[in-house]
Design goal:
The structure holds two protein chains of two kinds. Chain A is α+β, with helices and mostly antiparallel strands. Chain A contains twelve helices and twelve strands. Chain A has a domain of 103 residues: CO dehydrogenase flavoprotein, C-terminal domain (Enolase-like, domain 1), CATH 3.30.390. In chain A, helix 2 links the parallel strand 2 and strand 3. By secondary structure, chain B is an alpha+beta fold. Chain B has two domains: 83 residues, Beta-grasp domain (Ubiquitin-like (UB roll)); 77 residues, [2Fe-2S]-binding domain (DNA polymerase, domain 1). Chain B has five helices and five strands. In chain B, a hairpin with a 2-residue loop joins strand 1 and strand 2. The chains are: A alpha+beta, B alpha+beta. At the A-B interface, strand 1, helix 2, helix 3, helix 5 and helix 6 of A face strand 4, helix 3 and helix 4 of B.
Chain lengths: 327, 173
C-alpha cells in the first residue's frame, strides 16, 4: 500500500478544498470498500480525508414530510432508525439485504452510494480494465462476466453497480446533496449515476472533489413495498438480480408503481418502460409479466449471464403480483 | 528534493484496548488488526481474508462489531476496542465462551475469536431492537434463523455452524 497522509475534516468546505488541491486524495467514510481497494492496489491515494465526523451523522424529518439522511450515517444505524422504519421501510429492507453486520456497522450512506463495482478485472491491477485504466480494454466482455450487466452496457465496460441501498433509493426518487468547489448543490439520484458509454472510469456525474453530505427522501409513496433479492447464498452476497418495488392500487388498477433493478447495470436501473405500461391499467399477474418482458426486451445478455434476463422478468412479475395480492 | 510520497507517514495514536489505555506510533497504513496483533501482541484476533469477507478479525470498536482488517488504525484515535482477550472478566469466561465450549461450537478454532466478538456485538444489536433481513413485525428475538442471518459475516471453514447456532441461541437466553 502506498504511504498516505491522513486528515480528519471538521467542515465540508475544508474537506472539499483538500481534495481540490490534490488529485490523488480521497474522502474516507467507513473504508469498507476504499481500504480494500487500497490493499488490492486499485486505489493509491496520497491523502485520505476522513469525513465521518462532519455534520451529517443524523436522520431527521424534513418539513416537506420526507427524510434527510446525513452522508456519514452508518448503514446499520440507518436501517434501524425509527424514522426510516416508519417512513422508508423499503430502504431499511434493502440495507439489511446488503453486506454483513460488521460491514453495515462501518459503511456510510455516502460511501455506499459511491462503492465501486466488484467486477474481478476492475479489482485486479494486473489485468486490463477501462474503468481502472481508460483505454486498456475490457476483458470481462469475453471473460468472467456471469454477474455483470445485461442492460445499458457498452463495448468499453459491462460492470454492475453493487449497492442494494441505491436500488431502493432509486425507487424512492431520492435526492443527493453535494458540497463542491462552487458550493452546495442538489441532484436526483437518477442524475447521480450514469451508464458507462465511452468513459466507464466515471461511475457518477460527481467531480473528484465533490462530497455527498446528505441524501434526501421526498414524502414516502403510498402503497405496498418490497425489496426482493436473488443471490447465490441466503445472506452476505451481492445480488444476481434485485428488485425494489412500490405498488399503489385503486379499484383493482395500478395507481402508482415504482420498479428499480439492481445487479443488472452500471447504475440502479429504474424500469420506466414497465412502469409506464402498468400505470392506470389493471393489476393482474399477466400484465405484470408483459410489463416486465417489455422492460427486459432492451437487455443484451453476454455469453454467460443470459440467466439474468428471465430472472429479472420473473422477479419483477412475482414481486408485483405479491404486492397486488397484499393490497 | 526526494519524492516524499514514498516515505511512510507516521502518527501518534492513543486508544483503549480491553480497558487498558495504549499509545503507539504507527504508519498511517496500519490496520486496526495489525495494530492489535503486531504492535500490542494481542494475537487472539485472527487474520483471515484481509478483505472483510470472512469475519475472523471481528472486534468491538466503541461497542460495535467491525472487521478490524478494514479499519485503518489511525481512524481509531481515542476509541475503545474490545477483543476476544477482553471477553472474560475476573477469571470467569463470558457466557458465550461457556456456551461455545458446552456446544462444541468450534473445531480448528481459527474463526472462534471473531465468532465470539461478532456474537457479543450481534446480541447487543438485538437487545437494541435492530431488525435484520429476516425479522418480521415486532421486536427481534434470538431464533436460529436470526442467528444464521445476523452471523453471516463470520465464516467457519470447518462447518461448525450446526453447533454455533444453538450455542448462540442458548447464550442469549
Amino acid at each position: 500500500m502506498r504511504p498516505f497522509r491522513y486528515e480528519r475534516a471538521t467542515d465540508a468546505a475544508t474537506a472539499v478544498a483538500l481534495l481540490g488541491h490534490d488529485r490523488s486524495a480521497r474522502f474516507l467514510g467507513g473504508g469498507t470498500n476504499l481500504v480494500d481497494l487500497m490493499r488490492l492496489g486499485v486505489e493509491t491515494p496520497g491523502m485520505l480525508v476522513d469525513v465521518r465526523e462532519l455534520a451529517g451523522a443524523d436522520v431527521t424529518a424534513t418539513s416537506a414530510g420526507g427524510l434527510a439522511i446525513g452522508g456519514a450515517v452508518p448503514n446499520s444505524d440507518l436501517a434501524a432508525h425509527p424514522l426510516v422504519r416508519e417512513r422508508a421501510p423499503l430502504l431499511a429492507s434493502a440495507l439489511l439485504h446488503g453486506a454483513s453486520g460488521q460491514l453495515r456497522n462501518r459503511a456510510t450512506t455516502a460511501g455506499n452510494l459511491l462503492q465501486r463495482t466488484r467486477c474481478v478485472y476492475f479489482q485486479d491491477p494486473t489485468m486490463p480494465c477501462n474503468k481502472r485504466r481508460p483505454g486498456s480494454g475490457c476483458p470481462a466482455i469475453e471473460g468472467e462476466h456471469r454477474n455483470l450487466a445485461i442492460l445499458g452496457w457498452s463495448e468499453h465496460c459491462v460492470a454492475t453497480h453493487p449497492s442494494d441501498m441505491a436500488v431502493a433509493l432509486a425507487a424512492l426518487d431520492a435526492l443527493v446533496h453535494v458540497e463542491g468547489r462552487a458550493g452546495a448543490r442538489t441532484l436526483s439520484l437518477d442524475d447521480l449515476y450514469r451508464l458507462p458509454g465511452t468513459t466507464p472510469d466515471r461511475d457518477t456525474e460527481l467531480s473528484h472533489d465533490d462530497l455527498i453530505t446528505a441524501v434526501e427522501l421526498p414524502p414516502a409513496p403510498a402503497g405496498a413495498w418490497r425489496y426482493a433479492k436473488v443471490r447465490e447464498r441466503a445472506s452476505f452476497s451481492f445480488a444476481v438480480v434485485a428488485v425494489a418495488a412500490v405498488l399503489e392500487m385503486a379499484d383493482g388498477a395500478v395507481r402508482d408503481v415504482r420498479i428499480a433493478l439492481g445487479g443488472v447495470a452500471h447504475r440502479p436501473w429504474r424500469a420506466r418502460t414497465a412502469e409506464q405500461l402498468l400505470l392506470g391499467g389493471s393489476a393482474t399477474s399477466e400484465r405484470f409479466a408483459e410489463a416486465a418482458a417489455a422492460e427486459l426486451a432492451q437487455a443484451r445478455p453476454l455469453r454467460c449471464n443470459g440467466h439474468k434476463v428471465p430472472l429479472a422478468e420473473h422477479l419483477i412479475a412475482a414481486t408485483l403480483t405479491d404486492l397486488a395480492e397484499a393490497a | 528534493m526526494p519524492d516524499r510520497r514514498t516515505d511512510p507517514v507516521l502518527t501518534e495514536l492513543t486508544l483503549t484496548v480491553n480497558g487498558e489505555r495504549r499509545r503507539a506510533a504507527i504508519d498511517t497504513r496500519t490496520s486496526l488488526l495489525d495494530l492489535l496483533r503486531e504492535t500490542f501482541g494481542l494475537t487472539g484476533t485472527k487474520n483471515g481474508c484481509s478483505h472483510g469477507q470472512c469475519g475472523a478479525c471481528t472486534v468491538l470498536l466503541d461497542g460495535r462489531r467491525v472487521n478490524a482488517c478494514l479499519v485503518l488504525a489511525v481512524t481509531a484515535q481515542h476509541a475503545e476496542v474490545r477483543t476476544v482477550e477482553g471477553l472474560a472478566a475476573d477469571g470467569e469466561l463470558h457466557p458465550l465462551q461457556r456456551a461455545f465450549i458446552e456446544h462444541d461450537a468450534f473445531q480448528c478454532g481459527y474463526c472462534t475469536p471473531g465468532q465470539l466478538c461478532s456474537a457479543v456485538g450481534m446480541l447487543e444489536e438485538v437487545a437494541r431492537g435492530w431488525p435484520s433481513a429476516v425479522t418480521g413485525d415486532g421486536p427481534p428475538t434470538v431464533t436460529p434463523d436470526e442467528v444464521r442471518e445476523r452471523m453471516s459475516g463470520n465464516l467457519c471453514r470447518c462447518g461448525a455452524y450446526v453447533n454455533l447456532v444453538p450455542a448462540i441461541v442458548e447464550a442469549a437466553r
